[in-house]
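Ligand: zinc ion. Inputs:
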Amino acid sequence: MPDDDIAREAARRQASHDHHASNRTLRRDQDGVYANRIGLRGEEAWCREFGGKVDLTPRPGGDGGRDAWITIGGRRHPVDCKTANAPKELIVEVERRGKPVCKPNTIYVLCGYNPDRDRAHLLGWQWGHVLMQSWPKSHGYGVMNYWQARGQLQKIDELHRLAKTPLGIALLAEAERNRPRPFRGCCIVCGQPGLYVGWYCEDHRVW
Ligand SMILES: [Zn+2]
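Predicted complex:
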């Protein structure tokens, strides 16, 4: 594994956490051996796609569920990257110590971690308020999570489009170029003339 700033900060956080953690949270972290490193690799993957820099300043109380920000329609939204080995679901804790963890206007991003390359990549995303419509379930440790299956998540390209990143603007322009134009013609079923996108009137439209 590359000996870089992220690896070093992950090791430092792990050591600090081991020192302070309760038995229960310690057990949870031993399960995900490189929990901190994996998490930082997820944040790194976010920065590769959406810009910004991984915050390597020590955060004793955790990151408060905020790894980055993204602006959509003029409003800034917190981004929280959830990174795991071969994740099947995006999961967010319902509450911790009686306080709600999953936030409606936060964008949660699922990241997959590849241990061979010590590298993560973005798999999909979802709004907190959508996750909060799920029926919470436990994935172990007696912790209840909101969740969505990986295959149901929104695509990363869609987030680029919503945030109007350079890639998103290019994708929107491409979609606009490929959008069918309305034209004057006659329905190929009934012959009724009109302004159509396809060759069908409203009565015979097949989409
Ligand atoms: Zn027709």
